Amino acid sequence: MSLVLYEAEGRIAVITLNRPESRNAMSPELSAALGEAFDRFDADDDLWVAILAGNGRVFCAGADLKALSEGRAAGIITAEEGFGRFARRQRTKPVIAAVDRPAVAGGFELVLGCDLVVASTEAAFGLPEVKRSLVASEGGVTRLPRRIPPNIAMELALTGDTIDVHRAHALGLVNVICEPSQALAEAKMLAERIVANAPLAVRAIRHSVLDGLETTEAEGFAIAASYGREISQTEDFLEGPRAFVEKRPPVWKGR
After folding, report:
1. Which residues participate in catalysis according to the annotation?
2. Strands 95-99 and 49-54
3. Exposure check for the chain: N or C terminus, fewer CB within 10 A?
């Protein structure tokens, strides 16, 4: 059985954690398979957006504690790419998390590593590491306070409690709430809205937003302008206005 399922649908890659009997807990083997799947996605110029999903009753329960107890943490967290070879991966293309069930510990950190989140009413999110004398160091204590009010992030990190999808949505963690078992379908619809746009502009805008988060307004303007200059040198930059004038859908080439 493949630990990670990989499917390409048009411009979209669907990458699914497939270790349901272990609640998709991250083992060294699952981490390697997930990293290979994203290597494949990153290298394919025909794929513009990825969706990260999980099979079974849990999106991802975090690290495989059995593997940790056996001293095999090195395969679960790598120095360059972090938890699951994803949490700290350097990426250019957008990734959407499709969360149908609970995402906790490292599973929540995988979600925080994505750009957008679609979650069903059966989803929940939490950082229970404190209950095991661990630190949510793969994005939990770093990214969460930048996504939601810091005092709420502190509450979640210090108590180890989970929140349901409605509170997560109210806090801005979740883009779309959907019915149970519909997260992947909803994520695909969101991905289709993205791939309708110029792919190089999508990537430049993504970088502009992320690079500008911790800057002054003036620095943010400079970052966006720099990416804008890069885009102005591409073929797609000319295609957008041309298609508008000719009253037809643009044909993006990604170059």
Report:
1. 109, 129
2. parallel
3. N
pLDDT (tens digit per residue) in 167-193: 999 999 999 999 999 999 999 999 999
The residue whose two tokens read 């070879």 is 85
CB within 8 Å of 200: residues ≥ 6 apart: 231, 234, 236, 254, 255
Sheet holding 103-104, edge to edge: 103-104, 124-126, 162-164
Residue type, 134: L
